[in-house]
UniProtKB/TrEMBL annotation:
Membrane topology category: Multi-pass membrane protein
PANTHER family linked to this entry: MAJOR FACILITATOR SUPERFAMILY (MFS) PROFILE DOMAIN-CONTAINING PROTEIN, SOLUTE CARRIER FAMILY 2
InterPro entries linked: GLUT, MFS_dom, MFS_sugar_transport-like, MFS_trans_sf
Record gene name: Slc2a5
Protein source organism: Anhinga rufa
All copies of domain Major facilitator superfamily (MFS) profile, residue ranges: 1-148
Membrane-spanning residues: none
Main subcellular location of this protein, as a coarse class: membrane
GO molecular function: D-glucose transmembrane transporter activity
Keywords: Membrane, Transmembrane, Transmembrane helix
Protein location: Membrane
Any one cellular-component term (Gene Ontology): plasma membrane
Protein name: GTR5 protein
Single Gene Ontology BP annotation: D-glucose import
Family annotation (Pfam families): Sugar_tr (PF00083)
Length: 148
């Protein structure tokens, strides 16, 4: 959601910060799970319930956020709703350039053929990228983070 609602010039930054906070959350979970902190038998329920707090905050706050402007414009075709969402997210101002960018992206997406998984595996042009993704995903399982 953050990656979609951010302005185009900040979209890469917003997407990379989410990965950083995922990693930070994993580290905080591992640290707080140590015996000296919340890892004892009597404190395990508190440790397990601690992940429910962010989920509860998200569950309560997300209904008040507007729909994603690209979703409104590209999938629903609601240009007025898109403008309203952009104003609500980014404030008042002239945002026609962002709307034009979304329209260009929509036109580009209409010309791109979506491949099925089988078609992707058969496509010679994507073979090395597919190999790399499979190898990286498989080796992450062997790095020991699951054992920790």
């Amino acid at each position: 959601y953050v990656g979609e609602i951010s302005p185009r010039k900040l979209r890469g930054f917003a997407n990379s910060t989410s990965s950083f906070f995922w990693s930070l959350g994993k580290a905080v979970g591992q640290i707080s799970g140590q015996r000296e902190l919340l890892g004892s038998k009597s404190l395990w329920p508190m440790l397990m319930a601690s992940c429910g707090l962010p989920a509860l905050v998200q569950l309560v706050t997300l209904p008040f956020f507007p729909e994603s402007p690209p979703y409104l414009l590209m999938h629903k075709g609601d240009q007025e709703g898109c403008k309203k969402a952009i104003r609500q997210l980014w404030g008042e101002g002239h945002h026609q350039a962002e709307i034009d960018d979304i329209m260009k992206e929509k036109a580009t997406m209409e010309n791109i053929k979506i491949l099925s998984v089988l078609e992707l595996m058969k496509e010679q042009a994507f073979r090395w990228q597919l190999y790399m993704i499979v190898i990286l995903t498989a080796t992450v399982q062997l790095c020991g983070i699951n054992a920790v």
